[in-house]
Each structure stands twice: as structure tokens, then as C-alpha cells.
């Protein structure tokens, strides 16, 4: 009889334990919200340069940031620059403030004209990703006429 009571008790403990495991393992964890992709965007012109640059040049950047692997994928387009871009890259700095370069300058190639596009990828550190998500990144393109930058565009990162 004692053996049967012990067996029943063991069964009850196992059933309760199994039910508890199922309940706890099926709970959705909220920390996954920070793993959704981000959409990157920004419009550029000479007025955003510090100091501002007079001209008709404009630009646009689009892309995504994947926080799961730290990869920023982007395409930038430009129009009506004084000539083909000779430099370009990302910078850390608030709107209206001259910033510091982030990563290496873009290797855009040669034979570019005042209108065109460029695509690339960059792996971000956690600190760089946080600055990007906080709106403290911009991109800039320089030309032979304006080697320090002809257009600049502050970037936004919006979680999808």
C-alpha cells in the first residue's frame, strides 16, 4: 500500500512538473523587441553642411540595420553635384554639428558623375549602433569643388 501511495505521489509530482515546464517554456519573452530590423533613411543637401555649402546638389540614403548581426546595408543616390563624388562616408554628430568619421571612407570608385548611386555594407559595433539609432549619424559626400563635403544628410533609424 505504501509503495502504491509513493508511486501515485511520484506521478503527481511529475505531472505538475511537466505542466509547469510547458507553461514557462511557452511564455513569450519581451526582450526580442530589440531584434527587429531598422529602416535607415536620410535626405542630403548643401545647407546641412557645417558650414553650409551653396549648390544644387541633393542626396538620399536608404537601407536597413540588422541588430541580430550588426550589419548596416545602404544605398545612397545623389543628383546635381558639381562633379562626381570624390569622397563619402558616415559621421557621428548631431544635426548642425561637425562630427567625426565612423568606419572607413566609402570606396566609391572612379568615373563618377554629378548624378549616380552607391551601395555598401558596414558592420557596426554596439556603440555605433546605439548612436545610429539615437539619430547621431549623418553621411556626407565631397567633390573636387567641395572636398570637405558638398552635401550632408542626417540619418534616421526607425524600428520596423
Fraction of residues in helix:
10-25%
Radius of gyration: 26 Å
Q: Number of folding domains? A: 1
Structural class: alpha+beta
CATH fold name: Immunoglobulin-like
Word description of this protein:
The mean pLDDT is 87. The protein is an alpha+beta fold. Helices cover 20% and strands 36% of the residues. It contains two helices and nine strands. The N and C termini lie far apart (62 Å). The protein is elongated. A hairpin with a 4-residue loop joins strand 2 and strand 3 (71-79). The chain has a single domain, classed as Immunoglobulin-like, CATH 2.60.40. Strands 6-3-2-1-9 form a five-stranded antiparallel beta sheet, with helices on one face. A four-stranded antiparallel beta sheet has the order 5-4-7-8.
How is this fold's topology laid out?
Blueprint lengths: L1 H24 L12 E8 L12 E9 L4 E9 L7 E6 L7 E3 L13 E8 L2 H8 L3 E6 L8 E4 L1 E4 L1
Antiparallel strand pairs: 1-2, 1-9, 2-3, 3-6, 4-5, 4-7, 7-8
Q: Outline of this structure?
A:
By secondary structure, this protein is an alpha+beta fold. The chain has helices at 2-25, 126-133; strands spanning 38-45, 58-66, 71-79, 87-92, 100-102, 116-123, 137-142, 151-154, 156-159.
Provide key terms for this protein:
Immunoglobulin-like, 20% helix, 5-stranded antiparallel β-sheet, 4-stranded antiparallel β-sheet, 160 residues, 2 helices, alpha+beta
Amino acid at each position: 500500500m505504501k509503495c502504491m501511495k509513493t508511486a501515485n505521489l511520484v506521478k503527481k509530482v511529475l505531472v505538475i512538473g511537466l505542466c509547469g515546464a510547458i507553461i514557462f517554456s511557452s511564455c513569450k519573452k519581451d526582450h526580442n523587441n530589440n531584434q527587429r530590423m531598422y529602416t535607415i533613411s536620410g535626405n542630403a543637401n548643401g545647407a546641412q553642411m557645417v558650414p553650409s555649402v551653396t549648390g544644387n546638389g541633393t542626396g538620399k540614403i536608404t537601407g536597413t540595420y540588422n541588430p541580430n548581426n550588426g550589419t548596416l546595408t545602404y544605398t545612397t543616390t545623389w543628383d546635381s553635384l558639381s562633379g562626381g563624388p570624390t569622397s563619402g562616408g558616415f559621421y557621428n554628430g548631431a544635426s548642425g554639428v561637425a562630427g567625426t568619421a565612423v568606419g572607413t571612407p566609402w570606396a566609391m570608385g572612379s568615373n563618377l558623375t554629378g548624378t549616380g548611386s552607391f551601395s555598401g555594407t558596414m558592420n557596426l559595433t554596439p556603440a555605433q549602433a546605439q548612436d545610429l539609432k539615437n539619430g547621431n549619424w549623418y553621411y556626407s559626400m565631397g567633390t573636387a569643388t567641395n572636398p570637405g563635403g558638398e552635401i550632408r544628410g542626417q540619418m534616421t533609424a526607425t524600428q520596423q
